[in-house]
Design goal:
Cytochrome Bc1 Complex, Chain A, domain 1; 218 residues; 8% strand; globular; mainly alpha; single chain
């Protein structure tokens, strides 16, 4: 499940990542009985990326999984305990990477490529994210944006689960034609016009060369 995300240089980038950590924690708690793996992340680049939620679960849990994911995206109320835990997790996951030389170099390159503040300023921005910031960013990402859902598995099983409650489209399956579409089908091939090439003699552009062919008098 995915929707349009934010760019790396967006001022709400840090809040979107904290929001992703909170969404993943909630989704995992709701899907404890599905025995699957879950991830939620905000992928940001120079242009706006995507906010994506993904999971690998048993086929019988797909419908409930999608329902839980949509309910999480619609819930804009964030608890203070969730915020502190999410900020600690994101900063902790960031620190080990920055301790390595290659990762530090990549961070400097990101600063130049995306016109970002310094690493210390970015860390302070992570820590300064508030509940009002998360609610504002959640509304920005999920309130009016379209959300696309893609499910991979047995076509027949998924159709049986999802078709009763959701409008689905099976990849590779042709759509049935409506009566209006049938009436507009052309059964005869249109008449083709024969193309006749026309050759135009080049003009004499050399003033020293004269046409020696005599002119025919009437």
């Amino acid at each position: 499940m995915a929707t349009r995300g934010l760019a790396r240089g967006d001022r709400d980038y840090f809040a979107a990542n904290v929001l992703a950590a909170i969404a993943q924690e909630r989704w995992q708690k709701l899907g404890l009985n599905s025995n699957g793996s879950f991830f939620v992340r905000q992928e940001a680049y120079l242009l706006p990326g995507i906010f994506v939620m993904g999971a690998t679960v048993n086929g019988t849990a797909v419908a409930k999984l999608l329902e839980n994911a949509r309910s999480i995206l619609k819930s804009l109320v964030v608890l203070l305990s969730e915020i502190e835990k999410a900020k600690n997790e994101t900063v902790a996951s960031m620190s080990p990477r920055l301790s390595k030389d290659d990762a530090t170099a990549n961070a400097w390159l990101d600063i130049e490529a995306y016109t970002l503040p310094t690493i210390n300023e970015q860390t302070r921005a992570w820590n300064s994210v508030s509940a009002s910031d998360l609610q504002r960013v959640a509304a920005r990402l999920f309130r009016d944006n379209a959300i696309a859902s893609v499910v991979v598995g047995s076509a027949e099983d998924l159709k049986a689960q999802l078709a009763p409650t959701l409008k689905i489209e099976m990849m590779g399956e042709s759509k049935p034609r409506t009566a209006d579409q049938e009436s507009t089908i052309t059964t005869t091939e249109p008449t083709r016009r024969r193309t006749v090439p026309v050759l135009i003699a080049p003009k004499n552009t050399n003033p020293l060369m004269k046409n020696t062919k005599p002119v025919t008098k009437p």
